[in-house]
Amino acid sequence: MQIHSIGIDLGKTTLHLVALGAAGQVLVKKKFTQKQLLAYTANLQTSLIGLEVRPRAYRRVQP
Question: Structure pTM?
């Protein structure tokens, strides 16, 4: 399994990860807490990671 790129949707309490292969096929699709996501991605090979934040979630994070 060779992961080419990873997309992460940042929610308020859960984060959704989708990993794609070179041909665009879905290799991994999982839901994590922040702590679980950090542990999972720490053990992956280097790849492109894209993040998506919804505007309402972003406003809650800012001080």
Answer: 0.73
